[in-house]
Structure formats: structure tokens, C-alpha cells
Amino acid sequence: MNISEQCWGNHQASEQILFIHGWGMNSGVWTGIAEYLAQNYPDKLIRSVDLPGYGHSADYSIAELGGQYNSQTLAKSLEPFIQDKQTTVIAWSMGGLVAIELLSRLMRKKRQNIAQLILVSSTPRFVQADDWQYAVPAKVFEEFSRSLNKDHHATLKRFLAIQALGSRTAREDIKTLQKQLFLRGEPSSEALSYGLQILLTEDKRAQLTQLTDCPITLISGTKDTLIAHQGQKQLTEQENISLFSIPSAGHAPFISHPEEFKQILQNVI
Fold first, then answer.
1. Strands, DSSP E only, in the chain?
2. Is 0.90 surpassed by the pTM of this model?
């Protein structure tokens, strides 16, 4: 499978930053941040991928993923992007589950290619459980699954609106997200459906606790309606995990608060 990507900066660099997008979006959502990093880190290669079923990777066959669409097969599809470069992975929302799985795969193969992991508005488990109360009820994603079957265009737009909830610039944020989405094309309805199942069912908490050999940074908005801020604080009980909060930001802080987001990246990269 040929996974589409966008690249900036030095292709010969030994270090790179790899962006992974979230549900419903594509590599274009990172364009502004990627261009900023390319200007400020000329010694690095900056890459942003379109996951299978999204953006310019929308035309894919699930057979190429081994017949399954989940974080494991998505992570496997991204392994070639790591190669021999020291990599900082920046993953947003659902992309965080893929990133945790990717690092776990590399760890099992005893590959030390990951310099650090930055999870943006993400969590190892998106829905509530008896031992995981700081999350959204499962019915949130179940409702999205039902509405997706009826009208995936309307469902996608509704999800973009939810990502901007809480932000003081919500209306502008939605326009930006929609613009970036349509520039690279809508995702396949199949990938959207499988993606909701990833959000609804996958739990990476145990794997996250095993990722102790690299720094992990959480960046989240205090007004995020999909990621409970208290849950983010709870994750920092793990020694190598730190949290940066952006006041008044929603689920897409790099869109609503780009300057604050860039400053955080400067502090950790």
C-alpha cells in the first residue's frame, strides 16, 4: 500500500518529525504547524501522513491491511516511515492510539528509533470504563456510528463542529478544519466506520505504561469535550509523561491556539 504523505524540510536529515492525524481528517490538518517546524528546525525532515482511507490514501483496499482495520494494522502500515531516522511522533486524537501501538511494535522489535511521543488531545482509552471514569460515555461514539450509516457527510461535519466546541474561536476553527479536510478529499465511509470502532473499543492503557524509555508529552485544551482534562492529569502519574494545558482550547488546540501550541513544541522538541 502506498500511503500518501506531505514532506517539508531536509530529506537527508537523520532526525524527523512524523505527524499522525485523527478521525475524519488527513495530513493537511497539520500544514500550518509543519511549515512552522520546517522553518525553525532546518536540520529535521517534517512528514505528515494520510492514514489508509483518508486524504490521498482514501483509495485503499482493506486486504492490503491484512483484512482488518484497527490500530495494529494502521501502525504496521506506518513502520516504513520510521526507517533509520530518529523520530518524534506527534499524534492527534485517534492518531494517538495508532502512535502508542506503533511505539509498542518498535519496542518489541527492540528498535530505538523514537526520540519522543507527543499526544495532542488524545488518550489511551476514549470511552468510560469502571476503572476509567474520566472519559466520554460509549453512547457518544455509538450515536456517531448510527448516524454515519445514514449520512456520513453530515456526521463528518457534525464531528468537526464538536472538535471546536469550547474554543472561543469555534466558528473560525470549524471553517479551517473543513477547508483542510476538503483540500485533500473526504475520507472513505469504510475508514470512518472502522475508525469509530477504534475509538469505541480500543484500550492502550497497558501498552502506555510499558513505554517508559522515551519522553511522552500530552498537549490538551481545558475545554475539550472529547478528552477529559482530569484524565490527562491522571496519566501524568507515569514518570515519563508530562502535560501542557492550553486554557480555553477545545479538541484542536493547534488550530484554535496555534501560537500557544508552537511555544509548547519549542519547549519539548
1. 5-9, 15-20, 44-49, 86-92, 114-120, 216-221, 241-246
2. yes
